[in-house]
Structure formats: C-alpha cells, structure tokens
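Sample entry (111 residues):
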Amino acid sequence: SAWTTTTPTVTAQSGTITTVACTLAKKIVGKTLLLNMTIAMTTNGTGAGYLVVPLGSSLVRPQTLAGINSSLATSVVGQSSGTNLLVTTVAGLYPIANGQNIYIGGVLELA
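Predicted structure, serialized as tokens:
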C-alpha cells in the first residue's frame, strides 16, 4: 500500500496550544505502522506537560519512538498510549516552544 499523509490535531497534556501544525506520513504493512511526523509550533500559548498526537491506530502495547527538536538539537521521545503518541524530551519535559520544530519517525506494532 502507498504512504498516506494526515494532519492530526496536536494538543497538550495541560493548557491550550494556540497554533501548531502536524504532518503525519504513514504506511501500514500487515500489523506494522511505519511513520514520519513533523510538528511545527507557531505559538504555544499555555500548552504544558507533553504533546498528544493522535495516531488513528491502536497499538499492541506501549512502544517508544525517537525524534529531535531540530531548533535546539534536543532529543525527544514519543511514548504510545492507546491510539496516541505522547511526546516529551528525554528528561520528561515539555518538548517544544514558539517557532520550533520536532521530527519523529519509526516503526510501531499495531494491535
């Protein structure tokens, strides 16, 4: 099957993000989800905690993806939770600020 691109609505664990864009390119092969995601924060507002990115697919168990905040050259992680990816820095901090971009990619096992 071909890669598909979606634009999921990114939210924060707490507070409200003013303006953010997310592009999620994904391909499903059997029970394998390949993905490549860009999160571009224009204005964070009061967003805090971690980012919540809906994946649109149920995963078989908690899984982790790696990425980078390219503006800070800081590593980020995405931990799956149900059908969402929860994104933080590796230290567990809020991963993004105004004008910054995060790139995450990897492979997940679907339920």
